[in-house]
Amino acid sequence: MSSNTETVLDISQLTEFRRDLHRHPELKYEERRTADKVAAYLTSLHIPMVRGLGSTGIVASIHGKGRSADNPGPAVGIRADMDALPLQEINHFDHASKFDGRMHACGHDGHTTMVLGAAELLAANRHFDGTVHLIFQPAEEGGAGARAMMDDGLFTRFPCQAVFALHNWPALPQGQMGVRVGPIMSAARKFEIIVRGRGGHAALPHTTIDPIPIACSIVGQLQTLVSRGTDPLDAAVLTIGKIDSGTSANIIPDEARIYGTCRNLTKSSQQFLIEGLRRISSHIAEAHLATAEVVFTPGGYPNTDNHGKEALFMGEVMRELVGNDNAYTDVQPAMTSEDFGFMLEEVPGAYGWIGNGAGGKPGVGLHNPGYDFNDENLALGARFWDRLARRWFETLAVR
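Now predict its structure.
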């Protein structure tokens, strides 16, 4: 197996790059400074790139020996997300966010930097037969940036035989990695239920159709969709996160609005929840002479559903790098969601986890105001991507 044994990564440089991104977080589709920094790093490595896919996305192409843009050969894609979250950071270290209300609470600063480290290794030793497309994606956090890049021609302009991604995972200690065949992240759909009654004076409830107790009944009954309608072995989550209604304590309002999300690991259970939301809401409202309309927010994310061959291959590379005892190839799926699922619907591939805990223990959770990416992963992640790309081409050569 060919590997990059000559190039030594400047970990201090990568660490400062990652921490600079952490100091300057940018929200979905606003990653202009981040994209400029990534582009400057790639330019310093003499790696050609195309900017602007999905608004602020970048695709950088590293051609192996004898390959070129006109003759790319087989190609593999490696994706990193770049956006931050609208969250107030509570950390007080030197690289804490300089901006109120936004921070890198999901480690995308680290994902981006790991792939840049891999770019350095791959560009320095091009003894592989093919092309590696590095995909720096905007707007993973609710903006469907993967879909936006694809709509801009990502896989038609940069065809890939396979595509891979890593996410840091605080539940795993640093130095461990994980993947699985099949769904590793759930689908997610947001919805709103509008309960329409008839308002009036609080002292005259018999002249009204009060939407508030109707909404409460709907919320209670929706819980049975998962507890009594879903196969216990087919995980699903239905959460009501917000209810809005009324303007005053002595006024019965005309309507109430219920906001929630449903998450599923299979398309069949997602369809069951969608149908159940409409059925329960409308029938309970009708029983009280009211109406209920269920509106699903456009978009939503599909399952991140790993392809079998690619997931097994990713697991092999993990074992080669961190050893059998630290590589898990059948991790439990998570009910969080990821827009990398869009890419996996179009191109075979796999999505894995790299442990973010410190001192052999789990770390601060994702989307937590006290979160930070573990910089010990910068070298490990870069080496992983370098090895995965080289091994992928070697695997193709022996088929």
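Confidence is low (pLDDT under 50) at residues 1-5.
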